Amino acid sequence: MASVTAWRSTARQLPLRLTVGTFFLNAGLSKRGADQATAEGLHQFATTTYPFLGKLDAQQFARLLSTGEIAIAAALLLPVVPVAVAGAALTAFSAGTLGLYLRTPGMRREGSLRPTEQGTPLAKDVWMLGIGISLIIEGVTEHR
Prior knowledge:
Layout lengths: L1 H31 L3 H14 L8 H20 L5 H21 L16 H4 L2 H17 L2
Helix pairs in contact: 1-3, 1-6, 2-3, 4-6
């Protein structure tokens, strides 16, 4: 009976882990060889909201961002990584991107949570937060 329950749990997680994992893998690999202008743009955008990132140079930031995205992809795509761990990594990352959305001027309409045209790409990251929290809940409840 336990193996049937484990299989069902894995089957439920598979679409979430595969779709988000491949998305993160692509994002991380795309930033892996970022040119100077791209790295500077990413770094400048991030340091506007998270000033402590200003301690890094732009290329170093882009490499760390790329590595982080690839690590999250691996956590999601490798079935040996516990679902709660993969969910926690995804939740932490998405909380950071939603922080950018909430704190960066011009991302939201005045007095609203609704995104502007510029804010829509970050606002859409709310789905990652939902998936991450769902994976955490799945991981916590499957061990009961």
